[in-house]
């Protein structure tokens, strides 16, 4: 599987989660101009704002990852990323929390930014950008994958395709005010931890370089793009 397809799949799965978690925020942003065309444009711009943030995160992660790759620590990063993903999946499967509460001081700047953005004429774009930086398990999962690409351009591309994966359902949901019912979201959310578990185990095996074709080839630390 190519890195772009993997990132898109993570985004697509994550979008179902996002509709339940971030959907109310997207629904609440008012359109300052009347008319169906302006509504569609505003909601689409909101999605673009999120993707811009994801690409920026990809840039930051790429800068870190490139230095790690140059230092020869790619195997360790792959294993460490896999362990974190397995821990996140296990917390959802076995109902325990690694971090029970997000510190209020961390979220305070976001609240202030939202209050400002709601009154701005570019409110959908600004809030979309802010939304992309909010703490989210699926964004962390995507960032772990981007870190393992090994260079800046691949990391940005990875996060771009993650954002594109979240776009279809989120865009349709913001227009239709939540077309996916709670039952469907619950069913898909049950599958997500198993997907995360498989992905985490794959990262661990890649870092171990056990000379297993496709799963753990020798020299896998050269980047995710080498394993298709």
Automatic annotation (TrEMBL):
Coiled-coil segments: none
Urease accessory protein UreH-like transmembrane domain span: 7-202
Record key words, sorted: Membrane, Transmembrane, Transmembrane helix
UniProt xrefs under InterPro entries: UreH-like_TM_dom
Transmembrane helix keyword on record: yes
Statement: the UniProt record of this protein carries the keyword Transmembrane helix: yes
Transmembrane segments: 6-30, 51-70, 125-147, 159-184, 191-208
PANTHER family referenced in this protein's UniProt entry, alphabetically: HEAVY METAL TRANSPORTER (PTHR42208:SF1), HEAVY METAL TRANSPORTER-RELATED (PTHR42208)
Designated name of the protein: Urease accessory protein UreH-like transmembrane domain-containing protein
Organism listed in the record: Pedobacter caeni
